[in-house]
Design a protein that fits this description.
The protein is of the alpha/beta class. 62% of the residues lie in helices and 10% in strands. A hairpin with a 6-residue loop joins strand 6 (452-455) and strand 7 (462-467). Helix 6 (120-169) packs antiparallel against helix 7 (175-227). It starts with a helix and ends with a strand.
Length: 694
């Protein structure tokens, strides 16, 4: 409940707070135009003072400024309320001032008697001092803090946004935390922007108070002397006392609200209640307190100065300097004891051990010299940002979101080296020059430009590291220019492609199925666990990903698995059936730019050799080809594939669906990037071109 709702909602039901709030605003506006009796003015001035004190107390006790985000709105309402009461009191003073000093109600009369003793000269001086304190000191300082806070908050938004994105892509936070931090960032910018404008309300209110007081004094003297026939001295005294009492009744709540606004904007990023942060920071340095205590003691001994106040202050600060650290140590001991009682020291140590056992699915370990690459040389070009883009691209291409990639420095990695870790095992390593650019020949040839010789880590191409100033020269020679971040990202992408099946863990698959469209939930519930287990479904999807087949069309895959499950539970046979249903997708992913699917066909003789080597044992099939034949096939296949790739073609190997799994088994170690497709996977509309035969 905000402060305004707390005041206006005490006597109302929750369902009618909006109506009561609107009626309150209308009542304030009504006071601007209609006369108000003295008793109603007393009530209004009392409400204004109580409302101001409530605002101050809330400003003191909030944990952080955003907890009082409604302050600009409340400030506007409080300002309009005071101005409306000023107009009402002016109307009463000018109408009934000739009747005596209580013409404008008891509150104004009480302020005029209690604070100034009926002496309008003293009243004017006190009123002027309050206006100076409010307008020149508190309001002006709060306005400046609000302006600077708003400007720096808005300027810092892009950097904070990038930091959130970097933490998200590095796996330090999850999506929910990132959304919360972005929302807090938006709220913070909106709040400080509103406070910048709301501070003008306070300044305007102070200026309006001065003008209203001046107008009341002049107008009252004219009305009293000219219309009511009062002597000029009596008219001046009566109307001045009433006006100063009115000004004091208005300026005191205004001063309180101005102080609340100053406390709120000055709080900045300090968290915790105001007294906690102030007292803990002022009293948190015993040496400083002892120095002040010594100074007070010296002043107490100085001739001509009173001894008692300085001696009491010195003794008090000395006691706080001694007692404060004792209290803090006792507090820390109690906190440790409570934590030990609740969790236990053994449980705490076990928790730390469990954290050490946690395995990150994807991780990049970098040397100290590469830390600057995380943020990058420009917005959106940092390593963390590129990792985020890579995850998005893989999700669109392969149908599941990769786990977060954790980027961290490692003292055991040389300064310019990096390592790519997949499930706690080093999958690749490389070296980059953080202040240079890598150039490679797009045709794979040697690079003829001044620079440091290197090898592109992802594909093993010859390359060179050059200074950034040589970029135009390299581009003019037709070379491909790669920044250090992209070198690491390209290497990471190739490692991920080779590890897709490992990254589809049980937990990842569960998240994919949870996000499946609702119309396929019935199919999923019928399939798992009714027909097959979750583990078998995971193995089928892993088999597809191992050959870089996208699982994005998961509904079609589930339908195909359900069809195959009616005939067999053999993983290989089920996977082949799914591949057949995904034939159009597979062919489309292998079609070259000219629209043809280039293949190297398996000859009839080798097809016959493979079929004869397959042994059927119930629902299982085992492959038992003679080692000499295996070596002969691998040698022949490798030669054909190398001949084709030398012409810049990337052909697939075509064979029958019966032999495809075993051909894949033999070739995955010598040519893992070569796709193996079967005749049953060929789509009707594909343009097939056979370039060779094994």
């Amino acid at each position: 409940m905000t402060a305004m709702q707390g005041v206006l909602g005490l006597a109302s039901r929750h369902d009618h707070r909006d109506t009561l709030f609107a009626l309150s605003i209308i009542a304030i506006l009504t006071v601007l135009f209609l006369p108000m009796p003295a008793w109603a003015l007393d009530l209004g001035l009392s409400v204004s003072l109580a409302f101001a004190v409530l605002i101050l107390m809330v400003a003191l006790w909030i944990e952080k400024p955003l907890d009082f985000s409604s302050f600009p709105t409340i400030l506007l309402v409080a300002t309009v309320l005071r101005l409306a009461l000023n107009i009402a009191s002016t109307r009463l003073i000018l109408s009934n001032g000739h009747t005596g000093s209580d013409a404008a109600g008891g509150v104004i009369y009480g302020f005029s008697q209690f604070m100034i003793g009926g002496n309008f000269v003293i009243g004017l001086i006190i009123f002027a001092i309050l206006v100076v304190i409010n307008f020149v000191v508190i309001t002006k300082g709060a306005t400046r803090i609000a302006e600077v806070g708003a400007r720096f908050t808005l300027d810092a938004i892009p950097g904070k946004q990038m930091a959130i994105d970097a933490d998200l892509s590095a796996g330090l936070i999850d999506d929910a935390t990132a959304r919360t931090r972005r929302q807090e960032l938006e709220d913070e910018s909106a709040f400080f922007g509103s406070m910048d404008g709301a501070s003008k309300f306070v300044r305007g209110d102070a200026m309006a108070g001065v003008l209203i007081t001046f107008i009341n004094i002049i107008g009252g003297m004219i009305i009293g002397a000219a219309q009511m026939g009062l002597p000029i001295g009596q008219a001046a005294a009566t109307y001045t006392i009433l006006t100063v009492g009115d000004g004091l009744a208005s300026q005191i709540p205004a001063l309180v609200v101005s102080l609340a606004a100053g406390l709120l904007v000055a709080k900045g990023r300090n968290k915790g209640r105001t007294e906690e942060s102030v007292i803990s920071q002022l009293g948190g340095y015993p040496k400083a307190l002892m120095m002040v205590a010594a100074l007070m003691g010296a002043l107490a001994l100085a001739p001509g100065l009173p001894v008692a106040p300085f001696l009491l202050l010195g003794a008090g600060m000395g006691f706080v300097a001694w007692y404060g650290p004792q209290v803090e140590r006792a507090k820390q001991k109690r906190a440790f004891a409570e934590k030990a009682d609740q969790e236990g020291v053994a449980d705490h140590q076990e928790e730390k051990a469990e954290d050490a056992l946690k395995i990150e699915d994807l991780q990049i370990e970098i040397g100290a010299a590469l830390l600057s690459l995380i943020g990058g040389h420009a917005a959106g070009r940092g390593l963390a940002q590129k990792v985020k883009s890579l995850r998005t691209r893989f999700a669109a291409e392969y149908g599941f979101l990769l786990p977060p990639v954790r980027i961290k420095d490692n003292v055991y990695v040389a300064g310019e080296d990096y390592r790519i870790i997949v499930q706690d095992i080093e999958a690749a390593a490389g070296q980059v020059r953080p202040n240079c650019l890598m150039v490679i020949d797009p045709d794979g040839g040697e690079v003829n430009i001044a620079g440091e010789e290197a090898v592109e880590p992802a594909f093993g191409l010859p390359a060179r590291w050059i200074d950034r100033a040589q970029a135009d020269e390299a581009e003019g020679k037709g070379y491909t220019i790669i920044d250090p971040e992209s070198v690491i990202i390209t290497h990471l992408a190739e490692v991920i492609k080779d590890s897709l099946d490992q990254l589809l863990t049980y937990a990842v698959l569960q998240r994919i199925l949870d996000n499946l469209d609702i119309e396929y939930h019935k199919l999923l519930s019928d399939l798992v666990p009714g027909q097959i287990s979750m583990i078998l479904l995971q193995r089928i999807l892993q088999s597809l990903l191992a050959e870089r087949v996208s699982i994005r069309n998961l509904p079609l895959i589930l339908e195909a698995v359900s069809e195959a499950a009616g005939r067999t539970r053999n993983l290989t046979l089920m996977t082949e059936h799914v591949r057949m249903r995904l034939g159009k997708q597979i062919c489309q992913s292998l079609v070259a730019e000219d629209g043809f699917l280039y293949v190297i066909a398996l000859s009839t003789q080798w097809e016959h050799q493979f079929v004869e080597s397959i042994e059927l044992r119930a629902d299982d099939r085992h492959f038992a080809m003679a080692p000499s034949k295996v070596q002969e096939f691998i040698t022949a296949a490798r030669a054909k594939i190398r001949r084709a790739t030398s012409t810049e073609l990337q052909p697939a190997l075509l064979c029958s669906s019966e032999t495809r799994p075993f051909v894949r088994t033999l070739l995955e170690r010598v040519s893992p990037g070569t796709p193996i497709v079967s005749h049953s996977e060929l789509h009707v509309g594909v343009n097939l071109k056979t370039i060779d035969q094994i």
